[in-house]
Design the sequence.
């Protein structure tokens, strides 16, 4: 399959990239790792007159902790998350996620920023970043602004980014003591999109009660879902089988999955319930709570 | 038609060629350079038959633009054999019966070579993880894993 013709630009700097996006408006698409965009163009599900390749702009690939945040450069490869010692030791939810995004070959090119900016509700990072309470930096002609992840996804495959903005950084608050996270995904085979998946990040108080919890759901509706009713039901409670089961039911009730080859609406909703419970248990265990 | 001149080193040979923006790396290798050892399988980023090594990392060349490889070093299956001597991974696939139809084999071998470049003593789970983006529909993975283990032992 061959994409429809487009022009290709490879700016050397961020300002050049933004100027190109401004010049070409909605005819332009940002090319990062290309692992979602190129299949889309090949299948001709989408078109773009101009691709602005940010692949050679320096300073967009890093994983570092600074000022109370884990900072991930927008063009950081998924394979770098998988190999990062910080991620492996302190952010198990992101390590879990990195291991199940597509396959290892795709992860050598796919980027964290691209996974979010593509805004496919079946992508994995939207749910994990919702659970983590992340924020992103959008850099455009008017400078840089911060967008909380809760306000980043605006509708089906659509984000709060304006056409001249590039997602340049993702920031995750460094989790306090007694925190843990997990991402649990059901997929038919390696490389498939999730049938359903749940992301949980939890912080326990000294007495074992749940002080903070974030729950994100993948492939559960037209947009990535944050299961706020389920989160609220757990706050200030000691995690026990009954409260976890209640929260999992509330999370499943928040889903609006679509039936496809991966399953019926009922099946996917049930899987969202099961996976939320599993992710909660795993996250709480990792936080030292079970 | 938007054209760009790219410089790519493929198996150590430098090339400078004009390419269309939308030309995929796999088509550049197969059609422009006539290196048809790299196969096109699913053409949808699933099967890994088109796997080549770009700057040390195995990638699916059906999902990379040729112009994105400008300035890069690419290794394909044609670059494995040197002066009539098979690469240990090729010898491994031969000795351990790592192929039947051979369609996935170039991609499997390039993924294997990249893995062994980082780790010459991978465990079986590490090998299976590394090749999880390469699909085989006939040999089965048991002999493919053995073939990579054979090459690993030769390279140690």
Sequence:
């Amino acid at each position: 399959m061959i994409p429809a013709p487009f022009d290709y630009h490879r700016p050397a700097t961020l300002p050049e990239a933004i100027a190109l996006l401004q010049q070409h408006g909605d005819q332009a698409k940002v090319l990062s790792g290309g692992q979602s965009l190129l299949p889309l163009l090949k299948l001709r599900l989408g078109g773009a007159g101009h691709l602005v390749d940010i692949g050679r702009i320096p300073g967009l690939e890093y994983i570092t902790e600074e000022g109370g945040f884990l900072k991930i450069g927008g063009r950081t490869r998924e394979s770098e998350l998988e190999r990062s010692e910080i991620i492996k030791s302190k952010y198990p939810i992101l390590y879990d996620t990195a291991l199940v995004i597509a396959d290892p070959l795709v992860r050598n090119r796919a980027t964290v920023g691209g996974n979010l900016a593509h805004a496919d509700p079946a992508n994995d990072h939207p749910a994990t970043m919702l659970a983590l309470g992340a924020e992103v930096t959008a850099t455009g002609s008017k400078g840089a602004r911060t967008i909380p992840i809760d306000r980043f996804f605006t509708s089906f495959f659509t984000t709060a980014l304006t056409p001249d903005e590039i997602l340049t950084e993702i920031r995750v608050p460094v989790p306090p003591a007694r925190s843990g996270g997990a991402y649990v995904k059901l997929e038919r085979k390696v490389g498939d999109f999730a049938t359903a998946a749940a992301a949980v990040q939890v912080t326990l108080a000294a007495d074992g009660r749940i002080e903070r919890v974030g729950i994100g759901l993948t492939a559960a509706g037209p947009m990535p879902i944050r299961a706020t009713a389920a989160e609220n039901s757990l706050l200030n409670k000691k995690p026990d089988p009954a409260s976890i089961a209640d929260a999992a039911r509330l999370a499943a009730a928040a889903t609006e999955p679509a039936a496809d080859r991966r399953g019926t609406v009922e099946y996917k909703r049930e899987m969202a319930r099961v996976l939320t419970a599993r992710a909660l248990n795993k996250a709480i265990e990792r936080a030292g709570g079970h | 038609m938007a054209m760009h001149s790219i410089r790519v080193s493929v198996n150590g040979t430098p090339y400078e060629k004009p390419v269309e923006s939308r030309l995929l790396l796999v088509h550049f290798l197969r059609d422009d350079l006539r290196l048809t050892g790299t196969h096109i399988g699913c053409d949808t980023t699933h099967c890994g038959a088109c796997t080549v090594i770009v700057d040390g990392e195995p990638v699916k060349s059906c999902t990379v633009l040729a112009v994105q490889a400008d300035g890069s070093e690419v290794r394909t299956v044609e670059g494995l054999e040197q002066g009539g001597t098979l690469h240990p991974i090729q010898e491994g696939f031969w000795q351990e019966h790592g192929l039947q139809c051979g369609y996935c084999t170039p991609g499997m071998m390039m993924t294997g070579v990249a893995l062994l470049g980082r780790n010459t003593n991978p465990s079986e789970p590490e090998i299976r993880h590394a090749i999880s983006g390469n699909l085989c529909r006939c040999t089965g993975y048991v002999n493919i894993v053995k073939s990579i283990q054979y090459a690993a032992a030769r390279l140690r």
